[in-house]
Prior knowledge:
The chain is an alpha+beta fold. 39% of the residues lie in helices and 13% in strands. Strand 6 and strand 7 (209-220) form a beta hairpin.
Amino acid sequence: MTDAAELRRRTQELLAAHPPSETGRLDFLRARFDAGLAWVHYPEGLGGLGAPRTLQAVVDAELEDAGAPDNDPRRIGIGLGMAAPTILGFGTEEQKRRFLRPLWVGEEVWCQLFSEPGAGSDLAALGTRAVREGGASSGSSEAGSGGDWVVNGQKVWTSSAHLARWAILIARTEPDVPKHRGITYFICDMTDPGVEVRPLRQITGEAEFNEVFLTDVRIPDSRRLGEIGDGWRVAQTTLMNERVSIGGMRIPREGGMIGPVSHTWRERPELRTHDLHQRLLKLWVEAEVARLTGERLRQQLVAGQPGPEGSGMKLAFARLNQEISGLEVELLGEEGLLYEDWTMRRPELVDFTGRDAGYRYLRSKGNSIEGGTSEVLLNIVAERVLGLPSEPRTDKDVAWKDLAR
């Protein structure tokens, strides 16, 4: 079994064969992946060594000390946190070998085509249609049976769609069954004919989100993940990992949103009041509790897959970001009303800590919507964590085509 000493040895061999100062960034990252040091808990040949997840920190520390480049995880977070675990869990061997390496290295950016204008919080009600042409019939679950799927519909709130080469996509393939059972999961090439990406300008002035229109987009059956009609189960892997990646990110003490306001408090004593001090103390403690809870959640992941606890972490993340950014604007007074730049841009990533207080305040408003609305996540925590009775649902056994819309 691979242990910490073995991983250190392998890491030093990688550094000796590919010195970071003499090796191109992409070449080094490819070599790291091939050495099984990308995500050590993945299988051999897919960027890992089948080692415990906790040992990834050993590799990361060695590489950081050597000045090795990373794969810019903030830019490719959707691929790393959502697409990769889903492909690993449901993809064919061919799909895993085709997509995981360029995904981890960052050669190919991914986006997520889930939400729709009429199916955001109620994602299972989505109406984007995928119709089978050729091969087996649309109701068949036979894998690799050939033919294309023709997809038509609209997706919304798609982060990084303007940068992405690939997308994880769920579409309705069987309208005659209840909404959760007629969905199929695909990998969509964002460069294919019929894929149109339009920017959605946000309250920050930027267009980090997009809406995506799909018009007669042809997807080969070889890019289907999981069985036909089983897309909702596949999507749960994506959604659970998404909430962990948003709410359970590894950060140091005073990392994240609490860092800038704590720094301002220490450096600007003239802004302090007793009331602001009490509120800052409360939020600092809550941020630290959330950070440590996230660490515990990541340790739990070592033994299995992410569960509904990630929804609780994402809830805390959204609430804390909004309360902390509000406190920061109040602390800065008139300065807090200034805004750095309202230029319409399509950024590559969201940078909460590298921007001004006004940006943090406005951007954090989206935290309670993206990655699952807080209202939906409260239901998940109530039902799947606390074991409370489910809310009455009258549409669970009704065919999707018969639902009121």
